[in-house]
Amino acid sequence: MTTAGAAPGLVAITSKALERTAVAVAADVLGVAVSTVRVTLADEAGVLGVRVSAPLRVAGLRSGQPSDGILTRVQAARFGIRQQLTAITGREIGRVNVAITRADVKEETRVR
Q1: Are the beta carbons of 19 and 39 closer than 8 angstroms?
Q2: Which of 84, 100, 105, 111 has its CA 20 to 30 A from that of 5?
């Protein structure tokens, strides 16, 4: 029996598609280029485990902008990655590990 509006059949999402989606989501959440993000996915007892290695975008010292601590920002990134991946893929996301590889310093530029 099918639900109203549902067509019979199967929808399969390849592991490569899930990986590329996770890379894009992580890059967006961390505010860095997609090319600097690496993601590894694993099946952890039926839920999707995500491991992210990426730089963390930080304001330059001369910016004068206050910033949350690194730990606070990484915890928020883990939460954001989990939420967005769940919303996009419909998969249950378990553990999200984030390893920061370097600081990606964004210096303030002046426009004349």
Answers
A1: yes
A2: 84
pLDDT of residue 36: 96
Amino acid letter, residue 37: V
Q: Give the whole-angstrom CA distance, residue 47 versus residue 90.
A: 11
Q: Where are the domains of the chain?
A: 15-106
CA distance 57 to 109: 15
Cβ atoms of residues 42 and 49 within 8 Å: yes
pLDDT at 48: 93
For the domain spanning 15-106, the CATH number is 3.30.70
| Range 74-103 average pLDDT | 94
Q: Measure the CA angle with vertex 86, ends 76 and 69; round to 5°.
A: 5
User: Looking up tokens 């606070």, which residue turns up?
Assistant: 72
